[in-house]
Write a structure and sequence with these properties.
The complex is a heterodimer of chains A (about 375) and B (about 90).
Chain A (H helix, E strand, L loop, with lengths): L10 H14 L4 E7 H9 L2 H4 L4 E8 L1 H4 L2 H11 L4 E5 L13 H6 L3 E4 L3 H10 L4 E6 L6 H14 L4 E5 L4 H10 L7 E5 H7 L5 H7 L3 E4 L3 H16 L5 E3 L11 H10 E8 L3 E10 L27 H5 L31 H7 L6
Parallel strand pairs in A: 1-2, 1-7, 3-4, 3-5, 5-6, 7-8, 8-9
Antiparallel strand pairs in A: 10-11
Helix pairs in contact in A: 1-12, 2-15, 8-13
Chain B lengths: L4 E11 L2 E8 L2 E6 L11 E5 L2 E5 L2 H27 L1
Antiparallel strand pairs in B: 1-2, 1-4, 2-3, 4-5
The chains are: A alpha/beta (about 375), B alpha+beta (about 90).
Chain lengths: ~375, ~90
């Protein structure tokens, strides 16, 4: 691998930061990493095992596949099964269980479901198939929002009218409010998701830190980044501070990427959204603005209401809100595995259950 | 989903009136949309997610972060040495 200013995997440096965390820690602290990508990196590099026993990492709801509502998945399945439709999605969504089926099984029944790397690929498919309706499953946080908004602007500009999205985008700050205002909350500090902040900046977190008196540290994804983010959080906790700090300044500024933010707000507006396992969070989703409402797949297809049935065994909601860990679930690794998941956190490359399963965490 | 992969911009061009770049990810070149990072120039690193460059790497900040952390490492090494000589 070539040396670049982005490779921060130096083991000795990571260990030195961990030593500093051990040196300054005097009592127990619970810190939540919001982003599921960070959960996976923490498990992959075994960072949780290098921390002093006083520091507990709580895994957050930052797994878009996991929090996409059962209703949206059922809507996606209904749309995908229509004759004239090519349903396009990020690969993670294929195995997420709906009531009975998932998109994989819809595909095996003949539905044209295609995995794309970028929403732009979906637009290319629409361009190449003018006699089909091409629908993109618009899931993700603020990181994905500008890519989808930009694709809609391109579709609008190019007059591609057989392209639409199933809107399911969600936002991080409202979820933080929900976690912090829960009476059962244990979180005392946050690692904010570095790539969400690369787009949005971190100014939106200042009122949250102030209101709940909680330190929030913007954190990256390499082992050195994660260790540094945890250190900066523990430093604040130990000294009674509650600031928003930035441990990922090479990609994140206070104001973020304003071009991307402008594109998001041109196409989308905040709407109430349902989070799987958590419930409806006010103004926590992105819906299409009236000017772009014709790109909403929900208005292009007649869908029927289906009753929604979650697995009674799955504790995904508790895992996603940080109240339980994957190993607390009696179904973990037995009735629920990545090939036969009962809940979305076992499916996604960002789901906490999948991270525990993949990196062989045993009961502690 | 929010995984972002840093890559180096090796070419900038227009395609169907969209700003695009060739981005090198440790030897693998990929066409990436730079509509949300119009300021990027050749040779810079961008953070790529779902086919789009989300932001441009700040070299100065990257060096500064590493410098702070290396100082911390030295400080910790000194502490360990002092412990051992006690």
């Amino acid at each position: 691998m070539t040396e670049s200013p982005t490779n921060l995997r130096d083991a000795s440096l990571t260990k030195a930061i961990m030593a500093e965390i051990r040196r300054i820690t005097t009592q127990a602290w619970n810190i939540m990493e919001i982003c599921g990508g960070q959960t996976h990196a923490i498990m992959q590099y075994g960072l949780d095992q290098l921390l002093p026993p006083e520091i507990t990492l709580i895994h957050g709801p930052g797994c878009p596949v996991c929090v996409t509502s059962l209703q949206a998945i059922e809507q996606g399945l209904q749309i995908a099964c229509q004759n004239e439709v090519i349903f396009t999605t990020f690969g993670d969504m294929l195995r997420v269980p709906g009531n009975q089926a998932d998109l994989f099984s819809a595909r095996s029944q003949g539905a044209d479901v295609r995995v794309v790397y970028s929403p732009l690929d979906s637009l290319k498919i629409a361009n190449a198939n003018p006699d089909k309706q091409v629908v993109f499953f618009a899931i993700g946080f603020e990181t994905t929002a500008p890519t989808i908004a930009s694709t809609i602007l391109t579709a609008s500009k190019s007059g591609i009218d057989n392209f639409s999205i199933l809107p399911a985008n969600v936002l991080v700050p409202p979820a933080m409010h929900t976690i912090l205002s829960n009476p059962a909350n244990r979180v005392q500090g946050f690692l904010a998701a570095g790539h969400v902040c690369a787009v949005m900046g971190y100014h939106e977190y200042l009122p949250i830190a102030e209101q709940y008196q909680i330190p929030i540290v913007v954190t990256g994804f390499e082992p050195v980044d994660l260790a540094a983010g945890i250190l900066m959080t523990v430093q604040q906790l130990e000294s009674g501070q509650h600031q928003v700090a930035n441990a990922y300044p090479r990609f994140v500024t206070r104001e973020g990427n304003q071009v991307a933010q402008q594109i998001i707000s041109q196409v989308f507006e905040p709407v109430d959204r349902q989070w799987r396992g958590i419930g409806t969070i006010p103004l926590s989703g992105l819906g299409l603005r009236p000017e772009y409402a014709n790109f909403n797949a929900l208005s292009r297809f007649e869908l029927s209401e289906t009753p929604l049935n979650e697995s009674p065994l799955c504790i995904a909601g508790k895992v996603l809100s940080g109240v339980a860990k994957p190993l607390d679930c009696p179904a973990f690794g037995k009735d629920c595995t990545p090939t036969h998941p009962l809940g979305a956190p076992m499916v996604s490359s960002e789901g906490a259950c999948a991270a525990y399963y993949r990196y062989h965490r045993t009961r502690e | 989903m929010c995984l972002g992969i840093p890559g180096k911009v090796t070419k900038i061009y227009e395609q169907d009136s969209t700003s695009m770049a060739s981005v090198d990810f440790d030897g693998v070149e990929q066409a990436i949309c730079i509509a949300t990072t119009p300021e990027v120039v050749l040779g810079q690193y961008v953070l790529v997610h779902a086919g789009f460059a989300l932001n441009v790497l700040s070299d100065t900040e990257a060096e500064e972060t590493l410098k702070i952390l290396r100082d911390l490492q030295e400080f910790n090494n000194r502490l360990t040495e002092e412990d051992q000589t006690k």
